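ugh ok so i messed up the first submission bc i forgot one of the chains. this is the corrected input, ALL of the components this time, i swear. 551 residues overall. if the numbers dont match what u have on ur side tell me asap before i send this to the collaborators (the ones from the other lab, u know who)
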Amino acid sequence: MAASTSRPLEYLEGLPGTTFNKLYQQPSTALAIFRRMLPDLAKCFVMALLYLKDPLPMADLELWVNAESRKQRDNAISILGRLHILQSKLSDEKVRTYVVTDPFATSLRQALTGSADTLSFGVLSNTPDEYKISIDFLDDYARRQWEAVLGYMVGTSAFEQRGPRDGASLSEGVKQLLQAGHLVELRGRSVDITKDGFGFVLQDVNTQVWHILILYVQTAEAIGMDSVEVLSFLFLLSSLELGRSYEKKHLTPDQVRTLSGLADFGIVYQESPEATQFYPTRLATTLTSDSSALSNPVTGSMGPAGQPGSSGSGFIIIETNYRLYAYTSSPLQISLISLFTNLKYRFPNLVTGKVTRQSVRRAIEMGITADQIISYLLTHAHPQMRKHNAGHSTSNTGGVPPSVLPPTVTDQIRLWQLERDRLRATAGFLFKDFTNFAEYQAPCQYAAEVGVLVWKSDRKRMFFVTRHEQVAAFLKNRK
Amino acid sequence: MPRAVRGLLIECDPSIKSMILKYDEERHDYIVEDLDDEHHLVIKESQLQGLKARLDQDLDEKIMQLDESESE
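and heres the new structure output, hopefully the right one now
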């Protein structure tokens, strides 16, 4: 599964069963979870079991899967179990059976057949808007807001200069959320990005949106909103259609509040907080779709053409000699790249520079890890690099998976990071001055048994432990 | 009579260890106990940050870096 699914999945798994019960009342939630969170095999299981009248014996289900694929099967079943979708029961004949749990099954059937009332999937607004809102406008709005959020985090001055003229002003709510999630820290009046924040800005957009949404749900409870309502609203959003407007009057007060919160991030658009309708943007509608995060609209549109999704998302070329070419004019992307690159020249649609030992070490001192740099480069690699290296790997059948980035570069970036850690330090206590070997051996052995021993030397009769209390008590008792 | 001493166990390469030993010769303010093998020694807890900074600085000076000349 894509990496971007793991965070929402992790969060969902941590919820109590009663929450799931409430969540699955909504057909849109059931469908969204089915589409986005489940591995393919798990989807097959759910589909096969969904319309069965009786629970399916475990042995029958196991027959569906080849013996070699047991791991995938176990994984699928375990995910289904953790999301409270599949339940195993003992039947009357004492056979273990599987059944799709009820609120989920009913809701998913409704979602598939459309038999339920349609409130769950949002209500299309019929009143025509005075101003025609086009998809291009929504994409532009989403991109501007999202870039403003990221720009605020990395402190790009260009965004402040553009300011309100561009309409990309950030509300207090956004800033507070970023602080609550420890993505930025306020020091006096300046905004400092944290280590987590660096990890965040270097991820692809879909993962970022999920990160923000989960933060939002987590803080929702603190300000007195029902997290289940907020969550199911998020899943509802993800099933809406881009470029259509939806009625607000069917939403609960908490959901209307969520709506204006999300508008600040560019996830939905509304004319004003009082408007009676809202538009989901591409950030919302791709949340639970299967379309890969790479074809996301925002970073893609940061390319020179400025047209959403026209060129794919990649714009970075890095050569084996560490030179980097980035086809972008976005101040945000340029300042991100400059975090770990020595930029040399800037052209209207291109910046070039070199990844050097110095520049990488500067980044590492700021708390960025080598893996974050590499994954950023990988996420934004130019299509040309993917094509070139994919073609290359077919001639070289060494069983090595084809890598998009030159291996020399990725290895070197990791080595530069390792250089920083020349020594490993462990805090603790050194025990010494034992008069004879027997006196030394017993406490040393005891320390190893309780798991605090780090180092010992039989010859010098010394040993090093992380905690001394137990060993000291042991020595006292022996006297 | 056995004693326990608080400190930081440092694990490093022999080259790094010999640099630390050399620093310590100046004022004997780093090392709590030299553990007589090539990779380990115990130092004072308060000295770690200073030691790391000093090591980085010295190594940067001493190790030749070929790519820093920036020939574009």
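quick check: Chain A touches chain B at residues 322, 342, 344, 354, 356-358, 420, 422-435, 439-440, 443, 454-455, 457, 459-460, 462, 464, 468, 471-472, 475 (CB under 8 Å). that seems consistent at least. Residues 146 and 357 of chain A are 31 Å apart (CA to CA).
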